[in-house]
Amino acid sequence: MLTAENLVKTFPGVRALDGASLRLAAGSVHALLGENGAGKSTLIKILTGVHQPDGGRVALGDTGLHLNGPLAAQRAGIGVVHQERNLIPAFTVAENILLHHLPRRFGLVDRARMHAEARRCLGLLDLHLDPDTPVSRLSVAQAQLVEIAKALSVDSKVLLLDEPTASLTADEADRLYAIVRKLRDSGHAIVLVSHKLEEVFAIADTVTVLRDGRSVAEAEPLADHSQDQIVDLMVGRAYSSARLAERRVDPATPPLLRLDKLSTARGHHDISLSVRPGEILGLYGLVGAGRSELAKALVGLDRITSGTMEVRGRPVRIRDVGDALRGHRIGYVSENRKEEGLFLDQTVARNVAVTVWRRLAKAGLVTDRAERRLMTRYVDRLGIRISSPSQLAGQLSGGNQQKVSLAKWLAAECEILIVDEPTVGIDVRTKAAFHELIAELAEAGLALLLISSDLPEIVTLADRIAVMNDFSLRGELDNDHDYARMSQAIIRLIHDDRALGGQVHPAL
Amino acid sequence: MNPATTTAGPAGPGGRLKDVTTRPEFTLAVLAAAGFLTLAVATDGNLLSRGTLEAFFRFLAVPIVIGLSQMVVLAVGQMNLSVGTLTGLSAMVAAWLMLEGGLPAPLAVLGALGVGLAAGLANGLLVVFTRINGFIVTLATMTIFEGLRYGVNGPDTFQGYSPGLRDVGAASVLGLPVVLVLALVVAALVALFFGRAVVGRQLLATGGSPFAARLSGVSNDRSIVIAHGLSGLLAGVAAVITVAASGSVNSSIGDDLLLPSFAAPIIGGVALAGGVVSVAGTCLAAFLIRLVDVMQAQFGINPRWIDLIVGAVVLGAVLLGTMRQKLSKGSP
User: Fold this and answer.
1) Which of A192, A246, A304, B58 is the most exposed place for a label (fewest CB within 10 A)?
2) Per residue in B70-103, is it b (16+ CB within 10 Å) or e — as a string?
3) Contacts B213 to A, Cβ<8 Å
4) Do the Cβ atoms of A70 and B212 come within 8 Å?
């Protein structure tokens, strides 16, 4: 019914889709699978007119479609429920469902017709909600179902569900899937994006697997594959990781940072892990697993509610980032370097020196010369390419920006460094150089906590890998740098609810 | 999960009453009534004498309309700093059309409304096409309108224009000044627009969640242009009321309207971030501010104190709003 062929989409610095294809049949549930960053969301956004593809074609039956906006996709009969909630909180259920074509009479909203129409859509889902309820009063699950009702209100024949059960309980998810089956039986084509493989196998008929923006399995019957085969397809066996120099960490060395049954205000519970000097602990998880949030709690940006955090063997309470930095030498290289890590309209020198102005200052004043001297040291050490010390950080390439962000924390003489998604949006060559750099930092005796959604990166760099899901640790693995084995073990830890035990080592 | 059980079902009579009393508009109405009575008693009933009461209501019309003018841009998450000088410019144009252009009053009124609408649309189009923040755009146009307003007649005052229009400005029906009735009719139309009209709902959708609105096929650019255009049109209405009620206009008209234009909607419970409006709240807040004004006149308080009080009340209202939000999040 709906087909997408050889879609290509590039964003600045990233080729998000590189020849992805999707073929849907009426009356079936089609699973769209892939690891973080494989291009699933981009594909969904192209099919719903939010993004326009740079190449390839989308067709409904035999006619080509030009989806130049969300409205065009709706007219073509493609309904979508995005991963994030997209309802207007102050509006009622009925208004949200029909927002894209409010029934009108003389320019006024025809309430009677709006209610009747909303009731019909809710009825398709066996939902008995009062259409006059403001959306802000609904539970997460109810809001989710209202979005499905909204997607159905345009008579969509194709329904795209992006991670529909991410914020639902098991019962709620069951109910949702009952509805999905009902819609399938009435002839809809449904695309399901989900990280939960059990659910996918329970409900989907066919599957497309994306890897690095490409379809590696295309509309194949799901029954032909085992879960293991699908995981293989998702992570790719053929990946050959660059070998870095062997590092040896003496297991007897006392840890520099140790967490014991830590819980936070953001919802982490019972997080226990430790990092020794010279060691890289990888923290892997899906987007939204709570890794960056944990990092932020560790540097005092969020409240720790129970458990202990020990630095150099002593229990500490971190008040704020200044305390983390100056009191305990903990630095956090944030994921979002453009918004959180750098001052883009300031010079490179100033960006590097920002953490140590107090140390550089003489009589309360920071001289340009002191800043430049400091910067030159790190430019050489990290190989940052700049045209002059007064170049603005915003003019650098992504990789060099990330290095400046890193230099800032090294200048502060951090001993514990939390590095969050260091190579997102960076080209392959710079990425390899960055990996060497991180390994060298560990070699020099820093304790590193590496947060990454990039499996090859974690397997290449980390000494041990802790896997996080839903704000708690699923387990910890000793990394033997064998990509095939490690990646499968990690994916299984995330996807398999019964994984606790077996090859999993209890966290220290 | 059973959605039916957690539905906010139809409220019983008790629930309805509670719904009404917990609304911010209810608090404002109680405050307004209490303030009015207190002032009436404190002035030994002077406030209730025919002349004073009429003056009280006559000069309530412009604050209501100017508050609504700001409210419609706040609805889409924008601001309009130029409402005051635009009101002045429109008023000067209307007077000029009558005195220098020799046009009859109705055409001059249309002229003032036209200037307001056109200037408002220009604000909106500038915001949409330049992608410059609306605050900056209207800060610039505020100054431009200020210059144009002075350009119409220099430092001189226009007076002695259409007696018919001035009669309307001074007239009353059933003890209420005609200009106030006009302002209330405009308020009712604005309420209908945001409550029922498709375009009005689209404006609120844009203000409430621009991305969700876009996914539903609402053009956020169109919403922004319409909101600014409407804001300008309402500034034109305020200008017409000023011309009719005051009998003379000069290039300082509108200078004292910027703070009240924000004060009324903000005290009235309109969300600064957009998406939520309250016409009743805005009108009641304008009433409260008017009470403060009258208090100043009655007790000969230094007028400088009034700005201080209004400013403090605006800050307090915003603080209360954020506190209320936090509370309602804590216990839904």
Assistant:
1) A246
2) bbbbbbbbbbbbbbbbbbbbbbbbbbbbbbeeeb
3) 88, 99
4) no
| Residue A3 amino acid letter | T
Whether residue B318 is predicted with pLDDT greater than 70 in this model: the reply is yes
Judge contact between A263 and A306, C-beta under 8 A. Answer: yes
Decide if pLDDT at A53 tops 80: yes
Cβ distance A91 to B6 less than 8 Å, yes or no, reads no
Please tell me which of the candidates A74, A104, A142 has its beta carbon nearest to residue B3: A142
SS3 call for A114? helix
Residues facing residue A33 across a β-bridge? A209
**A349, A354, A358, A360: CA torsion to nearest 10:** -10
Of B295, B331, B278, which Cα lies nearest the Cα of B24? B278
What residue of A is the nearest CA neighbor of B192? A108
> Amino acid letter at A436?
E
What is the spatial distance between Cα B27 and Cα B10, in angstroms, rounded to a whole number?
Answer: 23
**Chain B contact for A68, CB < 8 A?**
no
Structural tokens at position B34: 């209490």
pLDDT of A341 above 80: no
Residues of chain A found within 8 Å of residue B8, distances taken between Cβ atoms? 130, 133-134, 137
CB contact under 8 A, A70 and B209: no
The residues on B that touch A, with CB distances below 8 Å, are 1, 3-4, 6-10, 192, 196-199, 201, 204-205, 208-209, 211-218, 275-276, 332
CA A421 – CA A425 distance, rounded (Å) = 10
Distance CA B307, CA B296 (A): 11
| Encoded tokens for A341 | 């890590």
* CB A7, CB A43: distance < 8 Å: yes
ipTM of this predicted structure? 0.77
- Across the interface, whether the CB atoms of B1 and A171 are under 8 A apart is answered yes
CA distances from A79 to A28, A190, A199, A295 (A): 15, 10, 21, 37
- Taking the CA of residue A348 and the nearest CA in chain B, the distance in Å comes to 28
Using DSSP bridges, classify how beta strands A14-23 and A2-11 pair: parallel, antiparallel or unpaired: antiparallel
Buried b (16+ CB within 10 A) or exposed e, A76-100: bbbbbbbbebbbbbbbbbbbbbbbb
Closest residue by Cα to residue A100 from A52, A136, A152: A152
